[in-house]
Amino acid sequence: MQHTVKAPIRFEGVGLHSGAPVTLTIQPASAEHGIWFRRIDLDGTDTMVPARWDAVKQSPLCTRLVNAAGVEVSTVEHVMAALIGCGVHNALIDVTGPEVPILDGSAVPFVRAILARGLRNQRVPVRAIEILEVVEVRRGDAWARLSPADTLRMDFHIEFSDAAIGRQDKSMTLSNGAFVRELSDSRTFCRQSDVDAMRAQGLALGGTLDNAVVVDGDMVLSPGGLRHRDEAVRHKMLDAMGDLALAGAPILGHYEGHRAGHAVTNDLLRALFAQPQAFRMVTCDGAQTARLPGVGVTHREIPAPV
What we know:
It is a single chain. By secondary structure, the chain is α+β, with helices and mostly antiparallel strands. The chain folds into 2 domains: 3-121, 2-Layer Sandwich (Ribosomal Protein S5, domain 2), CATH 3.30.230; 127-301, 2-Layer Sandwich (lpxc deacetylase, domain 1), CATH 3.30.1700.10. The protein contains 7 helices and 19 strands. Helix 1 packs across helix 2 (108-117) and helix 5 runs parallel beside helix 6 (262-273). Its EC number is 3.5.1.108.
């Protein structure tokens, strides 16, 4: 069945790139509503922004949504990953600025609060996107692919010159609570040289060593080091999870990403929906529902703080 949150959930923080204070509140929504953002700091315009693949205005640094009136909400990938990873299908997300708060740089603060508040069963069946044919996109050395599978599976590969990251590969099935257990606490990461370049462009103004993993060569500069030896590739999978959530329904398929970022995953969704023969919408039966992300997950599966 579809689910929404039982009651509003409020978060306060700063935008990663703007550095500006922002409040975000996840509100319950009716069945079939889907996920929408609402800019409650604006008047006199359309403040509703759909969490949908065709509302993405591509950016190399984050996932940015823009409606027909030009109203935007950016850096949505972590909260979107948390929602789908916890099995939330319907929500209205009120935000007081153009960027979602970065919190600790991962999805786990959202996950922790969602599971603490609990979900409401809406007694309407979940529909999912079943992948029927292989769809692939490429941008230079980066590529991403969707192929048939009976649940959401993910393979990811990254490679960086910095020895603190290097080459990392990870494969996993994302059914049930796997996202919460394995990926939700992995933080965004960057190289010190990237930080310097972004700040020179007026970006990453809200970034700190407490909400991002910053590396320089073979050194991890963030206090406490890594939460996982392969935290970087886990975070890339977290981002992909959030970007795939913009399909508007859970995906039953195998996602493979090679050096893929936000834009490549959005390219993949655009290619998928341009090929109607490559997918079909299915009303999930009991067996399919049991394999979806977030089904049966509890707060006990949240990684312990480090």
